[in-house]
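Comment thread on ticket #2218

A.B. wrote:
> Attaching the input chain for the structure job we discussed in standup.
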Amino acid sequence: MSNYYSLLKEKFPTKSSLVTEMINLEAICHLPKGTEHFLSDLHGEYQAFDYLLRNSSGTIKKKIQECFPEKKAQEIDLLCQYIYYPAEKINSNTDLSEAELEAELTYFLPDLLQLVKYIGGKYTRSKVRKMLPADYAYIMEELLTEEQPDKNKESYYLSIVNKVTELKQLENLFIAFANLIQNLSIDYLHVVGDIYDRGQYPDLIMDKLMTFKNIDIQWGNHDITWMGAVSGSLICMVNVIRIAARYNSIELIEDRYGISLRRLIDYSHKYFTPKKAFQPILDGATLSEDDKNLLNCLQQATAFLQFKLENQLIKRRPEFDMGASNLLEKINPQTGEVKISGHSYKLEGFPFDLIDWENPAAISKEEDSLLRDLIYRFQHSQRLLKHIDFLFSKGSIYQISNKHLLYHGCIPMHKNGDFKSISMEGKVLSGKSLMDFYQAKIRQAYQEPDCHEDFATDLFWYLWCGEGSSLFGKERMTTFERYYVNDKKSHEEIKNPYYSLREREDICHRILAEFTLDASSHIVNGHTPVKEKTGELPIKANGKLIIIDGGLAKGYQKKTGIAGYTLISNSYGLELVAHKPFTSVEDVLQGKGDIIFIKRLVEEVEERTLVKDTDNGKKLLNEIADLYYLYQHFEDY
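C.D. wrote:
> Ran it. Output below, let me know if you need it in another format.
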């Protein structure tokens, strides 16, 4: 301990420097807590996600209304457009002359300065200063200081604005202030899983997330297969490509991650012809017949390889207890039927002639070479590696933050409300210990990417579709049946009892207690879209559990009736915001882009929450205690 205080003294070599730091930290502790935003199930929908960040899920408009109560709705909407998409709004003003545009920006610039002060008022000046872009930091700080100057400094303020305008920098400065307002509006971002799959631009979402300093991510079941692919799981890699083919996202893999699929495409055309069950889901996109056929055959080829690899994994890992999914060995090639749960079903479009029926899961030399080539390409895509590194560094299976328990899927449970016990590597695990085990193992697998068939690497697949997975939450996945069996009874996927039990307050209290949280805490859950249109509510168990998957992905919106949720936690309490579907940037710039649908107050605190009441505040209070101890014993070190 003495070494610690000696090192601390090196950082604060005088008693006066200790006093200054203690006063600074104490002052920070008494500021209002920053605003936290919780989002989940982004599913590659970059434009909608980007818009939510730009408008802070409606918070910026609310702050403008508070800051400028005298402004009319039309002027507020115009100011919002300039803040959300400043560069795009400026470029869209083609009907204004250069002088008219300068006049409009000059008119709104004081509003931006005032809004920065209003939103940034709960932060230290030092924190705001660090958020200023280097190129304009001096000018912005001076303008913020003199935004309402006295008569002695009025000419000083005007001279800065006039010189900026004269040097043709007004637009850039205006954009910098608009971006600062966006950045100040979200102090901390929580992403509760499923960044990848379905939508076409998860890579752009990852790029955006990497600009946030204060962020955590809870891995979703779709994220975990991408993480598994880079960690060396052949079956996760094939599944990633299959889903990309199903949802018309091959450009993500080939063009933006630079992973060539040419050999795989050639293989798919060699052995497969288009089948109805494998038609790609386009979500409104238009493709030529040739492109549709390419995706169709590619989806068939990857499904075929996936089922072979899954058969091998199930045999290799009897502890996973996934025998019910080992369907290749339950096919009768003479009758063309498969036996599932005691029932025989006719197979449609199954490639019987490509199977070695003495060893159905056998991978040919051609297929083995193809798979090894693909895994090498996945593991050497620098952009993908950067994104997966970020997922591991900022991500986890679950997160505890300011009395919120965050996880994507579920806590596996029995019908009676007990936590489901899973036996793994000789340990019987449940609840928190099970999730800790999953997390430790997949981190291990990522550190050993050359081990393609070890336990830790195979665990990625279990987390994708295993019965005891906290990310999946069902008895088994019926991908095989959906492709090859017409009888929809075989398609049913039975959910874990958790999904009905989470309606009960006592169950939520039990889950919170498992993670050492008290009854005043909340669970924030994603994974299952809330069907608002049928009357389902996202707030459950008397406010103890909040589901924030409302269907940001376009494909879910017909079922949900909305386009996602944002949970907002600020110093006044908790608010849940439901969104309308995002249409386009052009619609926003024309005043048609207000996506806020419903606001629900989840919880209102009696006294405004301060930094000292947060997890970070507790760390600051401990730092203050250490500094005070050193101050009292300064001569001893």
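A.B. wrote:
> Thanks. Noting for the ticket: The mean pLDDT is 93.
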